[in-house]
Amino acid sequence: MSPSAIPSSTSNEQFQNDLNLSLRGLGVEYPPYLVGPSALETLANRFYPPTTALKKVLSINRFTGIETRAAIGDVDHPLVNQPNPPTIKELNDLFRVEGVRLSVNACRKAIQEWGGSVGDITHIVSTTCTNSANPGFDHFVVKELGIRTSIEKILLHGIGCSGGMAAMRTAAHLALGSSYQRKPARILLLACEISSVLVRSELDSINENQQTRVGVCLFSDCASAAILTNGIGDDQSTAPIFDLLGWKHQIIDDTEEDLGFDVDPLGWKVVLTQRVPTLAAAAVSPCFQDLIKSVPELHDNVQPPIAADFDWALHPGGSLIITGVEQAMDLTPEHLRASYEIYMKYGNSSSATIFSVLNKLRESEGKENVVACAFGPGIALEMMLLRRHETRPASANGFDSDGTSESWDTTAGVVVQEKITNGNGTPRMNGNPIATNGAAAETGPSDANGPEPNGTAAAADGKRDTGPSLPIEDVD
């Protein structure tokens, strides 16, 4: 799909200078287990015959570029070692415990950094695609946090990996409405996903239907949270983390069958076709151009900025999505350093990932302005322009900068917190060091949605070798 096929914006909306919307707290909570590619192979060999489709998926799994994925349990977790995959009731019961616990910890981190109290929170906007019970998980998080039950809540569903960005956009509109009424808005944003326990359901489909399903190689568990305010009554003695400058929501026409999360008696099934990286990369440039035009303060009386003038917080849906956007927008791995690092260490945690990427990005010096971007079912594209303030390590707020709480109480016994670095602290991909510009020095072959083609090692000029990729057929 060429960029010209992406519907252009028909809106003349212009964002005024200084919306006075800011992110003032971020919190990320990963569960304590980091499982490598061998975990999927172990489970597959325990329960399924070595069919052609399974062998192909396991081959892809070794070269996604993901070192480890965050999970609520290790390869011996009882829920994924039953004779049959867990039922949707069992998945819901687990989410009510583990998902709520992750969420509460992430929210407490965001609230702690913000510096306010739970009594000051005016709204909560939450999202998940790995639970659909009623009342929603946000109801139980509110109770655990001690927030008044009458607080205005919005729970977004059906938006998958773009959920964190959609929650931020929704909160921005709520905050502007409060500003119009001259009321303070202190909105708690929350995204939580538990994907790891869907592994048996996905392996069942691979075995029964002989489908090459790459989603089982990519997804992980996480909760993340943020506090968004409209400036009214804010503590002016502390700077915000990011200011919001503008945003855009875009649907790529005729792509409903390319990206999704189908309901199934055994949970949910990932829909992810090999067209997604190309479709996503083609959609970014026209969306970016429209968004830049809608924020006059970025180009008043000067040449409009280009993509390389920004740092990018791109949702790491797969390494071909990251490299596709990198190439389409003429970026370097340095622009996308936070997306690469989160992807390699934790995998794709769906809606919760974007706040984790922003959390990582704010820890290092960089460009003043940031583009945040994510893709979800539809295919939906969410994009937002942010302005960063001071560099602020997350560890300064009393919790680990990698988002894993040291106080996690797990009933599984052993807590594994593996640091994915070389001896000198340099990140690595598939056991190989990552260059200082964020590119992988070497990796293996690639799949249509995860791995980088031939490792796509970055040269000194930041360009990538886009060698042949491992073909994927019949992705469903």
Word description of this protein:
The protein is an alpha+beta fold and 476 residues long. Helices cover 28% and strands 18% of the residues. It has helices at 38-47, 52-61, 88-114, 137-145, 163-180, 199-209, 276-293, 319-328, 337-346, 353-361; strands at 22-29, 33-35, 69-71, 123-127, 152-156, 186-193, 222-229, 242-251, 259-264, 267-272, 311-314, 369-376, 380-388, 428-429, 432-433. The strands form 4 sheets. It has a 9-stranded mixed β-sheet, sandwiched between helices. The protein has a two-stranded antiparallel sheet with strand order 2-3. Strands 9-10 form a two-stranded antiparallel ribbon. The chain is globular. It starts with 21 loop residues before the first strand and ends in a 43-residue tail after the last strand.
